């Protein structure tokens, strides 16, 4: 595979992060809120802003942090959030749902996929929770997902590179395998070459520079002790490492 053909997806959780990712050369955006919680559904205003940009953005559909076993009420919320993404003009959404044993909940996913008819579909890292990744891959294919976002079942994609390669081979072009988790400008080239993936995903963030903040902001609980922000330079470095 020609490295320059590898698609770079950047996950962001705010307007400034969106603009930084685009400035750095992201090919596609995963649009979230609360990346510190591994990504939740973005607010409608951010969806509308992303829909006006030059690169496609897929909205994360995840109503709360924690596991991926959703109640009927939460599934109703997810359907409403899919409607919001469609109404904002976004081309796709990012979904996932699990059973108590970690396997993909094909019934819930089928209902969400049907509700998202006409939108592009990424299966998020609920995939990695599954005890049998080969079976999970076949489920994703049968449901009609475009791609799975995965670290090969490991904490990071570089650690799961061999398993990612096996998933790419098993997929045989029937579905995309996008490597994500722990992807940086310094390891992305080796990851793509080793795993054979055609899409990679990362936050490419840095710790936000410390600035003076009102003490009362922190005292009232509105100021996070440490925050991260999308770094346009890191996105650009990852894009350059991929040869473009």
Topology diagram in text:
Layout: E1 7-12, H1 15-24, E2 28-31, H2 44-51, E3 57-60, H3 72-88, E4 92-95, H4 106-115, E5 120-123, H5 126-129, H6 133-143, E6 147-150, H7 161-171, E7 176-180, H8 188-195, E8 199-202, E9 205-207, H9 215-219, E10 228-230, H10 232-241
Parallel strand pairs: 1-2, 1-8, 2-3, 3-4, 4-5, 5-6, 6-7, 7-8
Antiparallel strand pairs: 9-10
Helix pairs in contact: 1-10
Mean pLDDT: 94
Q: Could you tell me how far the N terminus lies from the C terminus, measured between alpha carbons in angstroms?
A: 14 Å
Tally of distinct domains? 1
Question: What class, by secondary structure content?
Answer: alpha/beta
CATH superfamily: Copper homeostasis (CutC) domain
Radius of gyration: 18 Å
Ranges where pLDDT stays below 50 over 5 or more residues in a row are none
CATH topology (level 3) name? TIM Barrel
Strand order of the largest sheet: 1-2-3-4-5-6-7-8
Major sheet details: 8 strands, parallel, barrel
The arrangement of helices and strands along the chain is EHEHEHEHEHHEHEHEEHEH
What gross morphology would you assign?
Answer: globular
- CATH architecture verdict: Alpha-Beta Barrel
Give the strand tally: 10
* CATH class group: Alpha Beta
Tally the helices: 10
**Helix content range:** 25-40%
């Amino acid at each position: 595979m020609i490295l320059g053909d590898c698609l770079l997806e950047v996950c962001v959780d705010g307007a400034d992060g969106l603009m930084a990712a685009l400035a750095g050369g992201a090919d596609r955006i995963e649009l979230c809120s609360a990346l510190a919680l591994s990504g939740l559904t973005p607010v409608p205003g951010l969806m509308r802003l992303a829909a006006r940009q030059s690169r496609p953005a897929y909205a994360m559909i995840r109503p709360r942090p924690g596991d991926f076993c959703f109640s009927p009420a939460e599934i109703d919320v997810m359907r409403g959030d899919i409607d919001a993404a469609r109404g904002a003009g976004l081309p796709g959404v990012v979904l996932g749902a699990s059973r108590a044993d970690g396997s993909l909940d094909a019934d819930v996913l089928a209902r969400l996929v049907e509700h998202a008819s006409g939108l592009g579909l990424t299966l998020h890292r609920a995939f990695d929770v599954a005890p049998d990744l080969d079976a999970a891959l076949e489920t994703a294919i049968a449901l009609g997902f475009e791609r799975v976002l995965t670290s090969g079942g490991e904490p990071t994609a570089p650690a799961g590179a061999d398993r990612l390669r096996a998933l790419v081979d098993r997929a045989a072009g029937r579905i995309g395998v996008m490597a994500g988790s722990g992807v940086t400008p310094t390891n992305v080239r080796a990851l793509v070459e080793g795993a054979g993936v055609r899409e990679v995903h990362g936050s490419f963030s840095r710790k936000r520079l410390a600035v003076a903040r009102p003490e009362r902001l922190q005292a009232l609980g509105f100021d996070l002790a440490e925050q991260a922000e999308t770094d346009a330079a890191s996105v650009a470095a990852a894009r350059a490492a991929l040869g473009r």
